[in-house]
Specification:
The chain is an alpha/beta fold and about 220 residues long. It has helices at about 1-15, 20-30, 35-55, 60-85, 105-120, 130-140, 160-170, 185-195, 200-210, and strands spanning about 95-100, 120-125, 145-150, 175-180, 195-200. It has a five-stranded parallel beta sheet, with helices on both faces. Strand 4 (about 175-180), helix 8 and strand 5 (about 195-200) form a beta-alpha-beta unit. The structure holds CO-5-methoxybenzimidazolylcobamide (B1M).
């Protein structure tokens, strides 16, 4: 039965049917399915297939937008539950988070923020298209432990390097740890640009963030 539900979730993203995506997310919560399981096994396969269809020209921008909306709405249904699961804990540290300048992909970044919050971090999510100077300014303002920069485009990954370079130039690279992520980002890229941490997904991001703030258990 759960497999059938996951299949419908995938299809709702492929069809850009955000009403169905929302209904299915609510149903998953009613059935007590772990939100992250539903995202990873239901909606993610849909959005990945959309990405493939888009790159080989079998799907076009309006459909990409609608698929993104369906995914976003489903995640919004799960967010309160994911946050609730971690709401009782003491703060593990402050994280300033954003998708880099020139990049408006927000779904993965928001998921990372939700998981960090659910696991006890205080997250300052600056949204998308965030400049390096804005990230640093906010980190100074809230006295952050960590800056998280997400990039989904090969053309915007370079801004993650700009962040690391700018922190070095301002003598702040010892004060703030930098975590990078996003579909085209790799461990090798993170090492090459001198970022302190990398994760390929939201669960891994929590483990990396804990390690970077010295709270790995
Ligand atoms: Co865009 N897009 N898109 N898109 N889009 C991609 C990224 C693309 C790979 C599709 C493709 O061609 N196959 C491609 C990039 C190609 C490249 O650079 N090599 C692409 C393109 C080309 C574009 C446009 C340029 C299209 C155009 O206009 N011609 C345009 C760019 C606009 C811009 O940013 N300036 C564009 C626009 C859009 C929409 C707005 C329509 C929409 C986003 C909607 C939104 O966010 N509100 C969209 C979507 C939906 C996608 C795909 C299909 C899905 C992205 C997504 O949300 N995935 C994507 C294809 C794909 O990735 N399969 C694609 C689900 C999300 C949960 O995963 O974001 O990877 P993800 O996040 C993961 C991990 O990466 C990691 O954890 C998350 C959870 O597991 N992670 C981190 C992410 N950030 C992290 C940060 C961390 C740690 C881990 O630490 C800080």
């Amino acid at each position: 039965m759960i497999e059938g539900l996951y299949q419908q979730m995938k299809q709702s993203v492929l069809d850009g049917d955000y009403e169905l995506a929302e209904t299915l997310a609510k149903k998953a919560l009613e059935l007590g399915i772990d939100p992250l399981e539903a995202i990873n096994n239901g909606y993610m396969p849909g959005v990945n297939e959309v990405g493939q269809l888009f790159s080989c020209g079998e799907m076009f921008l309006p459909e990409l937008v609608q698929a993104g909306e369906a995914m976003k709405i489903a995640i919004a249904i799960f967010e309160p539950e994911m946050a609730r699961r971690g709401s009782q804990r003491e703060s593990l540290g402050k994280v300033v988070l954003g998708t880099v300048e020139g990049d408006i992909h927000e779904i993965g970044k928001t998921l990372v923020g939700t998981m960090l919050t659910a696991n006890g971090f205080e997250v300052f999510d600056l949204g998308v298209d965030v400049s390096v100077s804005r990230l640093i300014e906010k980190a100074l303002e809230v006295n952050a432990d960590l800056i998280g920069a997400s990039a989904l485009l090969t053309t915007t990954m370079i801004k993650q390097k700009s962040l690391v370079d700018e922190l070095k130039a301002e003598g702040l690279d010892k004060r703030f740890k930098v975590m990078v992520g996003g579909a085209p980002v790799t461990q090798e890229w993170a090492q090459r640009i001198g970022a302190h941490g990398y994760s390929e997904d939201a669960i891994g991001a929590v483990a990396v963030a804990k390690r970077l703030v010295g709270k790995a258990g």
